[in-house]
Amino acid sequence: MSNLTALAAARERALPGSRAHGLGGVRCAVYCSQEAHYSIMRAAELLGIGRDWVRAIPLDAERRMDPSALADRIEGDIHDGITPIAIIATAGTTLTGAVDPLDQLADVCERLGVWLHVDGAYGLPAAATPATAGLFLGLARADSVTVDCHKWMFVPKACSAVLVRDPRALFDVFAHDEAYVPHADGVLNAVDITLEYSRPMRALKLWLAFRVHGAAAFRQAIARNCEQAQHLYGLAAERAGIDVLSSAPQLSIVPIRRIVPGCPDVNAHNAELCRRLQSDGRVYVSPATIDGEVWLRPCFTNFRTTTDDVELLLSLVETLGASCGDHG
């Protein structure tokens, strides 16, 4: 919902009046990394932009959106009469936790006059910790930012937020003047800045979490999770038969996979290993397909996770992996 809200505002800014008269055949596009969240595709569908006009920009060596490739694609589209709606940077991709180079992307947006949206659903809270704050350089230049507080901030689903540089941008895309919705002079009504009319008070759980724990507790837990990810990466990189990505984790996601010499189908082996880990129940990991290969995707976002848990995970990967034999 948050990404949809932000992109609706970006569409109205790029194509004023489109909420009233539609796109009218105007060709327009949004731009994101090849590993952006599927909610971007869904938002493009719902907003009438169309999924075919979501431009997937190639990645750099650290699996971040390539700013040069982005600029080239936008300039080519403008030359062809296509209107850029927004650049969607990802601050913590779902597959690997990569943070797009926000400051460089903001330079492209500023030069070409395009809305910059930062999808920080997973990773944005890490901007508040000293060890990872540098990854978010340029965040303050964004036109809109989203964060899912239920991912890394001690609260249950669902609790998501969208922040905008100019609050009027939300009013422009959502406000209605209806006789049955009272509008007091000078008072902003939430119905005028969101897609929903009646809705639960989702913010209460986050407010309570801050009141009970305090911001320092959030920062400490997030920093600890990132340290746990680095610990797992270091341990796995040294183990024979365990493969890791070429670059260390930026946040708290650490893709790993088991390599078995002579195994006819390593992907099937790792898919089966993931199923056995889930069935075992002592740890939980999800599978991920990265560059056509099946990986295990440990993601540390729980404040209760300990170093012992990290080491147990790697031990189980080895022992349960051995029980899979040389096949899936």
TrEMBL record:
Keywords: Decarboxylase, Lyase, Pyridoxal phosphate. Its cofactor is pyridoxal 5'-phosphate. One of its GO terms (biological process) is carboxylic acid metabolic process. Belongs to the group II decarboxylase family. This is Unannotated protein. GO terms for molecular function: carboxy-lyase activity; pyridoxal phosphate binding.
